[in-house]
Amino acid sequence: MVAAIIPVILCGGSGSRLWPASRDSFPKQFLTLVGSDSLFQATVRRVAGAGYGAPIVITGADYRFLVAEQMRALGIEGDIVLEPLRRDSCAAIAAAAEIALRRDPAALVLVLAADHAIPDAASFRAHVERGRVAAEAGRIVTFGIRPDRPATGYGYIRPGSPVEGAEGVNAIAAFVEKPDLATAERYLADGYLWNSGNFLFSARVFLDELARLAPTIAGPVREAVQKASRDLDFLRLDGESFGQATAKSVDYAVMEKTDRAAVVPSDFAWSDIGAWSAIWDLAEKDADGNAASGEAVFVGARNCYVGSPDLLTAVIGLDDVVVVTTKDAVLVTARDRAEEVKAVVQQLTAARRREATEHRMSYRPWGNFESIDRGTRYQVKRITVHPGGKLSLQSHLHRSEHWVVVSGTAQVTVGDDVRLLTENQSIYIPLGAVHRLENPGHIPLEIIEVQSGPYLGEDDIRRYEDDYKRV
């Protein structure tokens, strides 16, 4: 019987080049940009079923409940592993390999980025099977995409001689950095491949190579896994040990140094969704080359993209532009300069603008809330609590609150008083009162919250009890 491949999904990063839709608080892997799933969900679904084991997802503590919720929506279970801090890709992959090895001493691991688009899952899986023979023979395999244009935004791989006994797999002659246009054109002519950043290998082989080539990563990560602790349904790596690991990409730490590197020249459709122009590339277009997500009207426009889930957006007389709207920001850019969006985020960050990193909608393990109005001494929020969801037992030093139930049933605790509220009923939470909101029903609970006070920040919360072990 052929052993199942264990998928490892790297689910960190902020995706700032897809601002304003992607921000630190809700990065691009959780967005639905192509198809009906988020990029993360599409990645999980791509490697679910026969031939694949339960996935190992490596993410940060800030995203743990988003990961869990999106996996629950798919009905797929796996290990969610929490990095205590970012140490680039190699440490994350090493931790996953250590965990896979504890599952199965002969484990084959398939490492995937959570934010890549690969529309043809069957073709991708066929390429994985092509690489399996080489991985089982001790090769560390990556997937190199045959380029269809001289792209300057990707690293490249120069394939070497064929790997004996593994049809369709080549040794790697060289990794090369992102080129200028003239060099990219030469690479295209010379048969170079785009470096997709996805890998297939034996967990044991990878960890042995890591110990040989980068012991300052291998040792601390092994210790971080050994000292890992359970936190609800998550596995939290030991912070002190993990923090000692050198921050380095897997390419620099292992792939460029090992003599075991191999590549599967691949022709499945692939994009790392590095800019809004990539969304236009993948989207269905009208006769004038325009594409839209949400409601859009095009008049005398060609080759444009509109991403506007909440607002009707019209584009008149423009060619090759991208327009993206959210509830608190609008982006307009020439399509061929879409990668420069990162510079906008840097300016907003330097100016300490909330829009650089946060959406008006914020997600929590119990549901979400959206700020819909704000003034000097007040804020209005729409709060949604999942069935069975429960906010922490808490108090505030600087604000009082009024809650109005819009739909569903709320169980509200204020001091020693516990009561049920239904649609159109309301309650007042005095400043300093210990209180809690719960949804005991079977449908989502929606309330409108009006806060009043001199300080309305999210850090004005003192928690006494919390089902999600937040402090």
How many structural domains does the protein architecture include?
3
Q: How much of the sequence is in beta strands?
A: 25-35%
Radius of gyration equals 24 Å
The CATH topology of the largest domain comes to Spore Coat Polysaccharide Biosynthesis Protein SpsA, Chain A
Number of helices: 11
Assign the structural class, choosing from mainly alpha, mainly beta, alpha/beta, alpha+beta, or little secondary structure.
alpha+beta
Largest sheet: 6 strands, antiparallel
Strand order of the largest sheet: 16-17-18-25-20-23
What is the top-level CATH class of the largest domain?
Alpha Beta
How would you describe what is shown here?
The protein has helices at 39-46, 64-74, 88-103, 121-136, 181-189, 203-213, 215-226, 239-242, 250-255, 276-282, 341-350; strands at residues 5-11, 56-60, 79-83, 108-113, 140-145, 156-162, 170-176, 193-202, 229-231, 234-236, 261-266, 291-299, 305-316, 321-325, 330-334, 361-364, 367-374, 378-385, 393-395, 400-407, 410-414, 417-421, 426-429, 435-438, 445-452, 462-465. Strands 16-17-18-25-20-23 form a six-stranded antiparallel beta sheet, with no helix packed on it. A five-stranded mixed β-barrel has the order 5-8-6-7-11. It has a four-stranded mixed beta sheet with strand order 12-13-14-15. The radius of gyration is 24 Å and the shape is globular. It contains eleven helices and 26 strands. The longest helix has 16 residues, at 88-103. It is α+β, with helices and mostly antiparallel strands and 471 residues long. It folds into three domains: 5-266, Spore Coat Polysaccharide Biosynthesis Protein SpsA, Chain A (Alpha-Beta Complex); 276-350, no CATH class; 361-465, Jelly Rolls, CATH 2.60.120.10. The mean pLDDT is 95.
